[in-house]
C-alpha cells in the first residue's frame, strides 16, 4: 500500500509516504470513519502533513488530516491521524427551516445541491463536490416522504432517513492520472456523492455479485481478539426455599439433567420464599379440640399475615425481616386507635396489658 498526500487547495499530489510502521483506516458509509498512520519523520514528507491535506490510502479511500503528534509508545515516531472524507458532509448545516418532499435519494441529492454545489451564499460552495451521474449510484426508491430541518448538519439528517430505507451514501474520490504532455500531476478531481442499495456479498449469493472475503492473508482485517470466560459459570442453580433441615424445600433450575463433572452447582438461598398456608387438624369434622370449636387451626405464614392485615384496611406494612420487631408491633397496635402503649422494656407489664385489653376489647381479665 502506498500513501499519497494531496494538497488541500489545489488537490494536486504532493508526495508519497514510502515507509511507515503502522497504518489503519476505517471507511464507513452513512457516517465517517477515521485513520491513523505511525511513521518515522521524513524531512521531505513531514512538510506536507498539514491540517486539511488529504491522504489517499487506496482507490476510494481518502482521509483528511486533522492532527500530528509524537507517538506515545515510541517518541522517535509520529502519528498522523484524521477522518475519512465523508466528514465533509458535516461541514454544512441547515441554517433556515427547509422543507423537502420526494423519495429519499431525490431529497438527499437536492440537499447536497443546496448546501454544497449551488448554495444561496456563494461562500458555502465547495466546487469539487458533485452528484454522481451513474444510474447505479442514483437508485429508484418507492414512496415519497417529507423532511424538514433546522440546525442539524447534512450527514446527521441523511443518516436518520437512509437507515429507514436500507440505503447507503458516501463521497467517492475521483482521481486524474498524471498527464505527461501537460506536466500535470496526479489530481483529486472531485468528490462524488453516491447513493446505493445494499447488495449480498456472501460467497454463493444468488445475485452473482462478487463476494467480499475477509482474511488476514488479504490484509483487510484488524487484529482479532477473542475472550471466553467461564469462571462464574454454573450449569444448575439449586434454589433452597422455606423450611429447615431435611424439610427444606429445594428446586433445581438450569441444565438439571447434567451429571458428573458437567454438573456445576450454584446455591441460591431463597428462604424468604413461602409456598402458602399450611393447616393442622384440630379434630375430625364433628369433633372439637380444647376450644370446643369443631374446626381447624390455620397457621398463616408471615407474608400471608401481612397481606391479611393490609386487606383489613390497615396501613401498608412492609416486610423488612422475617419477624415483626417489638417496636413495630406497638406501632401497629397504636395504629388501630388503641390506647397509647409505651414501654422501655421488651415486655408489657401486667397493669398496662390489662388496661389495653379492657379499653379496646372489653374482655374481663
Describe this structure in words.
By secondary structure, the chain is of the alpha+beta class. The protein has five domains: 3-88, no CATH class; 92-186; 236-269, no CATH class; 274-316, no CATH class; 325-365, no CATH class. It is built from six helices and 17 strands. The protein has helices at residues 43-46, 104-117, 154-164, 302-311, 326-334, 350-360; strands spanning 3-6, 13-17, 22-26, 34-39, 54-58, 61-70, 78-84, 98-102, 129-131, 145-149, 168-176, 187-196, 236-240, 250-254, 265-269, 278-281, 296-299. It has a seven-stranded antiparallel β-sheet with strand order 2-1-5-6-7-4-3, with no helix packed on it. Strands 9-12-11 form a three-stranded mixed β-sheet. Strand 3 and strand 4 (34-39) form a beta hairpin. It starts with a strand and ends in a 5-residue tail after the last helix.
Topology, please?
Elements: E1 3-6, E2 13-17, E3 22-26, E4 34-39, H1 43-46, E5 54-58, E6 61-70, E7 78-84, E8 98-102, H2 104-117, E9 129-131, E10 145-149, H3 154-164, E11 168-176, E12 187-196, E13 236-240, E14 250-254, E15 265-269, E16 278-281, E17 296-299, H4 302-311, H5 326-334, H6 350-360
Parallel strand pairs: 9-12, 13-15
Antiparallel strand pairs: 1-2, 1-5, 3-4, 4-7, 5-6, 6-7, 8-10, 11-12, 13-14, 16-17
Amino acid at each position: 500500500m502506498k500513501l499519497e498526500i494531496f494538497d488541500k487547495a489545489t488537490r494536486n499530489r504532493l508526495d508519497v509516504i514510502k515507509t511507515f510502521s503502522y497504518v489503519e483506516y476505517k471507511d464507513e458509509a452513512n457516517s465517517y470513519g477515521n485513520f491513523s498512520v505511525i511513521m518515522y519523520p521524513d524531512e521531505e514528507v513531514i512538510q506536507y502533513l498539514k491540517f486539511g491535506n488529504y491522504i489517499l490510502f487506496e482507490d476510494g479511500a481518502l482521509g483528511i488530516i486533522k492532527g500530528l503528534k509524537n507517538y506515545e509508545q515510541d517518541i522517535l515516531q509520529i502519528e498522523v491521524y484524521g477522518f475519512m472524507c465523508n466528514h465533509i458532509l458535516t461541514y454544512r448545516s441547515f441554517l433556515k427551516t427547509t422543507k423537502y418532499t420526494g423519495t429519499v435519494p431525490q431529497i438527499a441529492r437536492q440537499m447536497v445541491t443546496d448546501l454544497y454545489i449551488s448554495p444561496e451564499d456563494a461562500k458555502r460552495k465547495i466546487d469539487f463536490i458533485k452528484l454522481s451521474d451513474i444510474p447505479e449510484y442514483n437508485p429508484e426508491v418507492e414512496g415519497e416522504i417529507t423532511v424538514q430541518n433546522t440546525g442539524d448538519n447534512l450527514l446527521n439528517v441523511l443518516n436518520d432517513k437512509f437507515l429507514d430505507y436500507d440505503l447507503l451514501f458516501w463521497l467517492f474520490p475521483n482521481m486524474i492520472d498524471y498527464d505527461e504532455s501537460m506536466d500535470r500531476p496526479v489530481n483529486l478531481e472531485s468528490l462524488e456523492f453516491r447513493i446505493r442499495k445494499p447488495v449480498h456479498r456472501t460467497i454463493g449469493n444468488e445475485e452473482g455479485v462478487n463476494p467480499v472475503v475477509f482474511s488476514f492473508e488479504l490484509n483487510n482485517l484488524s487484529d482479532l481478539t477473542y475472550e471466553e470466560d467461564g469462571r462464574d459459570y454454573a450449569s444448575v442453580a439449586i434454589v433452597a426455599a422455606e423450611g429447615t433441615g431435611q424439610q427444606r424445600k429445594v428446586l433445581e433450575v438450569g441444565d438439571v439433567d447434567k451429571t458428573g463433572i458437567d454438573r456445576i452447582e450454584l446455591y441460591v438461598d431463597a428462604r424468604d420464599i413461602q409456598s402458602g398456608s399450611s393447616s393442622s387438624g384440630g379434630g375430625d369434622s364433628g369433633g372439637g379440640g380444647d376450644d370446643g370449636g369443631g374446626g381447624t387451626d390455620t397457621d398463616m405464614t408471615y407474608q400471608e399475615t401481612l397481606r391479611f392485615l393490609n386487606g383489613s384496611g390497615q396501613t401498608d406494612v412492609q416486610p423488612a425481616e422475617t419477624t415483626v420487631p417489638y417496636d413495630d408491633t406497638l406501632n401497629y397496635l397504636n395504629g388501630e386507635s388503641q390506647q397509647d402503649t409505651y414501654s422501655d422494656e421488651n415486655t408489657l407489664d401486667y397493669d398496662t396489658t390489662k388496661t389495653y385489653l379492657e379499653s379496646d376489647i372489653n374482655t374481663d381479665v
